[in-house]
Amino acid sequence: MKSIRIFIASFLLLVLALLFIFYHQNINIFLKGFRNFSRSFFDRSFSYGNLKDLEVENQQLKATLALLKQKNEKSDEKKLITFVYSNYPFNDNGLLIINAGSKDGVKEMMPVVSLTGALIGRISAVKNNLSEVQTIFSPDFRSSVVIGNSRTKAVLRGGNIPYLEFVQKTAKINDSDGVFNISSEYPFNLFLGNIHNLVVTPQDSWLKTEFTPAYSVNDLDKVVVILNFP
């Protein structure tokens, strides 16, 4: 009986030795990968905040690609690129003044977007050489939107800190999901930004979530007016 156990043990050692000889390179690769994966959890340079930023950036890149595809499909859009007057050091982000007016073909209600195609707002007043733009930071701004891949409907309410309301409690959404326009006042599916800080209140029938625009108003030097919409 003892000799059989010795034989089995010897046979297993021989098999392991042969496996190591023929597959040692693959085994080393696996062990190295597992070691690097384990170390990542204890690496001080690893940051969940950076991971979140990458997720947001990924959403924005996807939205930009979708917009580029949409632009190719709608090559008949007439656009006017114009400069933005600075409101520094004042902080009235709800209203922008642009360097284009009726002489340039600008009319009220025309959509205004960033150079990357993100929705900024619409023309609210026009003069010969200047126009006013009501932005999503205006307290009077309202727009119908959808959130993320689930295309969950919501209402974007403007203000210094825009937010989304009337989001269904059963909605399958997550922080950093993208927000896209579905209001007929603007081109369909324009990217606006990403949600964050989803608020769940048991006594309310709807969810609310804060909203991070795809741009900073203070960084806007030029904007695009879509001249032939609707």
Q: What would your notes on this structure say?
A:
The protein has 230 residues and is α+β, with helices and mostly antiparallel strands. The protein folds into 2 domains: 48-138 and 217-226, Thrombin, subunit H (Beta Barrel); 142-213, Rod shape-determining protein MreC, domain 2 (Thrombin, subunit H). Helix content is 28%, strand content 30%. Strand 3 (111-113) and strand 4 form a beta hairpin.
Please give the structural blueprint.
Layout lengths: L1 H39 L7 H26 L5 E5 L11 E4 L12 E3 L5 E8 L4 E5 L6 E6 L4 E6 L5 E6 L9 E4 L9 E9 L6 E8 L8 E5 L4
Antiparallel strand pairs: 1-12, 2-5, 3-4, 3-12, 4-5, 6-7, 6-9, 7-8, 8-11, 9-10, 10-11
Q: What's the shape? A: elongated
Low-pLDDT segments: none
Strand pairing plus helix content: what structural class? alpha+beta
CATH class of the largest domain: Mainly Beta
Helix content: 25-40%
Strand order of the largest sheet: 1-12-3-4-5-2
Counting structural domains, the number is: 2
Largest sheet: 6 strands, antiparallel
The topology string of helices and strands comes to HHEEEEEEEEEEEE
Number of helices: 2
How many β strands by DSSP? 12
Overall average residue pLDDT: 80
